[in-house]
Design a protein that fits this description.
10 strands; Rossmann fold; 236 residues; alpha/beta; 7 helices; 4-stranded antiparallel β-sheet; 27% helix; 6-stranded mixed β-sheet; single chain; globular
C-alpha cells in the first residue's frame, strides 16, 4: 500500500490511481521509503514531502518508535530509503542523521551541564519554549521530564535536520507547553521546508498539525479514513 500525504490544493484522485506512482516513490523532494523492511517486519511504503506534517498513531507497543529508529538508520533495514532522491546507503550514518533527525520519546543526555549539549545560537528557540538563557547553566539532573523534552527539541533543531522524526514530543507537557512546541516546529518547517513525521496519541493534536494521518497496526501502515490527494507537483 502506498501512503501519500494529503494537501487540499492538489487534485483528488481515486485510491486505485495511487498504484501508478509506485515506481516513483523514491521522490526528489522529501523523505521516502519503498519496500522498506526491518527486524522481520513486512515491507512498508511511505512518502513525506518537504513542508508537510504526517501524523502517526497506534496502540502502545505497535512499533511506532521502532519505525522511527529504522527511518533514522538506527536499526538494520532493507529496501529503499532516501531523502531528496539521495539514498541512505550511499552516505555514512552520521551524514544521514544530519539530514534526518530523530527526537526519541526519552532523550539521552550525556553531559552533566545543559549548556554542554548545545552549539551555536539557540536563544530564540529557548525563549519560544519558555526558557531563559540561564537554563544553559543548569545541571541536567535538575530538569523535569517536560524540560528535558523541550530542550531536546532545541538540541535537535540546532543541527538543522531536513526531516524531523518526532516520537511523542509533547507527551510530558501541559497544554500550553505543547502549543509552544508545536509553534516552534511549525516555524522551523516553514523556514527550512522540512518533512515531519509526528507520533502522538492525541488525535486533536494530529488534526491541528498534520495533512495526513497514518495508523500503525499489526506492522502495517494505513491512512485514516480521509481522502487521498495526488501530489502532482511533488511526484512530477
Amino acid at each position: 500500500m502506498i501512503l501519500l500525504p494529503t494537501r487540499p490544493s492538489y487534485v483528488r484522485v481515486a485510491c486505485s490511481l495511487i498504484s501508478r506512482f509506485d515506481r516513483r516513490l523514491c521522490v526528489k523532494d522529501g523523505l521516502a521509503a519503498r519496500n522498506f523492511g526491518f527486524l522481520g517486519w513486512g515491507l512498508l511504503n511511505l512518502a513525506i514531502p518537504r513542508g508537510q506534517f504526517v501524523g502517526l498513531s497506534g496502540v502502545s507497543g505497535s512499533g511506532k518508535s521502532l519505525l522511527l529508529r529504522a527511518l533514522a538508520d538506527l536499526v538494520e533495514s532493507s529496501g529503499e530509503l532516501c531523502f531528496d532522491g539521495m539514498a541512505c546507503h550511499a552516505m555514512s550514518a552520521p551524514q544521514w542523521r544530519r539530514l534526518v533527525g530523530l527526537l526519541p520519546a526519552s532523550p539521552v543526555w550525556w553531559e552533566d551541564s545543559v549548556g554542554s549539549h548545545f552549539h551555536g545560537d539557540v536563544v530564540g528557540w529557548l525563549d519560544a519554549l519558555g526558557f531563559g538563557v540561564e537554563v544553559l547553566g543548569w545541571d541536567v539532573a535538575r530538569l523535569s521530564s517536560g524540560e528535558k523534552q523541550r530542550l531536546a527539541l532545541v538540541r535537535l533543531l540546532a543541527r538543522r535536520p531536513q526531516a524531523l522524526l518526532l516520537d511523542e514530543p509533547t507527551a510530558s507537557l501541559d497544554s500550553e507547553a505543547s502549543r509552544r512546541m508545536e509553534g516552534v516546529v511549525r516555524d522551523y518547517v516553514e523556514r527550512e521546508n522540512s518533512a515531519v513525521l509526528w507520533v502522538s496519541h492525541d488525535p486533536e493534536q494530529l488534526e491541528r498539525l498534520c495533512s495526513c494521518r497514518l495508523v500503525l497496526s499489526n506492522r502495517t501502515l494505513r491512512e485514516e479514513a480521509r481522502a487521498l490527494w495526488a501530489l502532482w507537483a511533488f511526484l512530477t
